[in-house]
């Protein structure tokens, strides 16, 4: 019986942690579908957070590659007065951490591509 309580407690804590992160992400950035993302590209700053090797294979037209590990050092390359659009292959940890960093650094207009590059139906450059 005590094992059941431990498992139940674990599930509750895990669910609470996931809900908290979801809430934090929603406060930091807007997760948008393809058509909204495509509209925001014009006038926005499109950032591919993947590694350079992945970026060279395929990326959204007009994207610049700033790997997530280098984003903190590259913040000066992004303007705070224009929307920042970020993506990776899927919506995962890279975009979450990048959105939190951007928000903490004073960027207010942040957009995340809902299903990442894997779900993108717009123009891409294949290398």
UniProtKB/TrEMBL annotation:
PROSITE patterns in the cross-refs: RHODANESE_3
The record lists the membrane-crossing segments as 6-23
Q: Which SUPFAM superfamilies match?
A: Rhodanese/Cell cycle control phosphatase
Keyword Glycoprotein recorded? no
Q: Which residues form the Rhodanese domain?
A: 40-125
The record's listing under Pfam families reads: Rhodanese (PF00581)
Per its UniProt record, what CDD domains does this chain match?
A: RHOD
Keyword tags: Membrane, Transmembrane, Transmembrane helix
Which Gene3D superfamilies does the record match to this protein? Rhodanese-like domain
Q: What is this protein called?
A: NADH dehydrogenase
Species whose genome carries this gene: Streptococcus azizii
